Amino acid sequence: MTQQILIIGAGFGGMWSALSAVRLLDQHERLDVAVTLLAPQAELRVRPRFYESDLTTTVAPLGPLFDAVGVHFVQGSATRIDTAGKRVVYRDASGAQAELNFDRLILASGSQVARPPLAGIDRFAFDVDSLESAQKLETHLQGLRHKPASQARNTVVVVGGGFTGIETAMEMPARLRAILGNEADVRVIVVDMGKQVGSVMGEQIASVIAQASDTLGVTWKLGSPVSLVDEHGVQLDNGERIEASTVVWTVGVKASPLTQQIDGERDAFGRLHVDRNLKVLGQDSIYATGDTAYAAVDERGNHALMTCQHAIALGRSSGNNAAADLLGVEPIAYSQPKYVTCLDLGAWGAVFTEGWERKVVLTGKEGKELKTQINTQWIYPPQARRDIALAAADPLIPVVA
Ligand SMILES: Cc1cc2nc3c(=O)[nH]c(=O)nc-3n(C[C@H](O)[C@H](O)[C@H](O)COP(=O)(O)OP(=O)(O)OC[C@H]3O[C@@H](n4cnc5c(N)ncnc54)[C@H](O)[C@@H]3O)c2cc1C
What we know:
With about 400 residues, the protein is of the alpha/beta class. It is about 30% helix and about 25% strand. Flavin-adenine dinucleotide binds near residues 40 and 109.
């Protein structure tokens, strides 16, 4: 009887899981194990680019790739994971309920922005977390040109000065000027709880972020959280008010809610604790990968971050190891000791750092060239050719950006 490896999610973790599982099965010439991937769309949505204005190239089709390697794609959204019964209940594209059985399950359903229960946030704050929300923000920004000129119209508040907030804010002066004209007096304000500009990113990189902010005219309001969002702007906890027609929320992220359906320990982001082979601790048949996995990257106590840099390597490991488990062959422990950061700083350039302490290696134009290469080539799916795609899914290939 055919055994089933079922993957939930077609992001970085899910796509690479599927390819690496097929790769190992192929090497062992095992045609009696099928790889099925369940996701709302057969496409890789390149979330790291959702702070950009042109979203048309941020979606890569996966249908031809899955066909080329023999991954069975099922369109739908998982609603329930029955761990004991080894089945996943889902809603298909027409809204009908259906189910899939599994022998090994790989949970790769990613993460989403964690909006706190704050007055006005759901009605008035935008985000850049999903394709739909990024499109909504872009439509709103385009619409500003039809509004009467005012300081509020020309102001964007970005809540959160972490990775996503910084990339969103630094791109914003150019995005606003493209819509409102070069002469427009645009204001971009980052509201952050930190005491210094970019402090959450580490000391070395923070001074580069401050320099880029100065050059681009992006200002920071530090040390006070947002207490309320409304149609005309935000109110800070310290009583200060900023009038702004556009508020972008970037603070906080949480793992997919499907993680809660699996018994196991979770970290503060809701990620499932996994062993070195990415099997969920306490589970026999379930792996977690990408943003759903709390995984050690080395022997020194570092853990994967919720980044596509980690999700790609985690995916190559989880697919390989789920297949290895079924085949009864040795798994390859997940290991990713090298960590880098490449942060887009808009028209100023980008900054590339190495190591967990984020040692600055490249800045400005050089950093930007690398960022462009990462964001337009390296993180995209491999060519839809069986030999190329399977070779690219080797879990021993190091991911360095
Ligand atoms: C604006 C922004 C900028 C970023 N910049 C960077 C960066 O510069 N560098 C970096 O390394 N990372 C960056 N990231 C983080 C990176 O995008 C994520 O860490 C990465 O996408 C995680 O990959 P994943 O496969 O785990 O999840 P995702 O990419 O989120 O994919 C999840 C998949 O699961 C599917 N899914 C969800 N729920 C269900 C369900 N119920 N049933 C079936 N399928 C489901 C989704 O449709 C999707 O296909 C950024 C993220 C954002 C939002």
